[in-house]
Write a structure and sequence with these properties.
Layout lengths: L1 H8 L1 H20 L5 H7 L4 H5 L6 H4 L7 H22 L1 H26 L9 H17 L3 E2 L2 E2 H16 L6 H18 L8
Antiparallel strand pairs: 1-2
Amino acid sequence: MIYMEEIKKEPVTVGLILINIIVFLAVEFSGSSQNTIHMLDCGAAYTPMIIEGGEYYRLFTCMFLHFGIEHLLNNMLVLFVLGSRLERVIGKIKFLIIYLVGGLLGNVISVLVELKSMDFAVSAGASGAVFAVMGAMIYIVVRNKGWLGDLSARQILVMAFFSLYYGFTSTGVDNTAHVAGLVCGMMISILLYHPRGRRI
């Protein structure tokens, strides 16, 4: 009963996690999440296909695909920790907007950067959206004078630092989408979060 009550408090977070897990299992059963060609067939992002082929849907579908179980678990763990808290504070609809729009904008900016550098790579993952949630949390914690429930600004900043550090010191990581997602999450939360206003 207690578990069900907790789920009712953050249904969007739980729903997003379930969707990511279901998509991952579908990809695994139909091929392999670590097979680049199969991931492209499933909707992973690849700038030439998006721009030259007009396959703009990839900017969205890639947010629900992951390269391997570790990639999935890392993103879902951070989403569970931060998403549940953010959803309770800002409301279901606003939380979903931050997650989807922040992640989408992160992917768009990543594509623009790749077009400039001409260094193309197949990318997938909820990281940009998760970083958008993280960025929103940072802004809201600052607005709440350093605390949000049981999380402090320092704890969230440390989590953001190590997440970014891990990305920049690892290969095959779309760091542009991470940083862009973080910044976009902050910007969106500035527009949506009004402590004295009515929650959606």
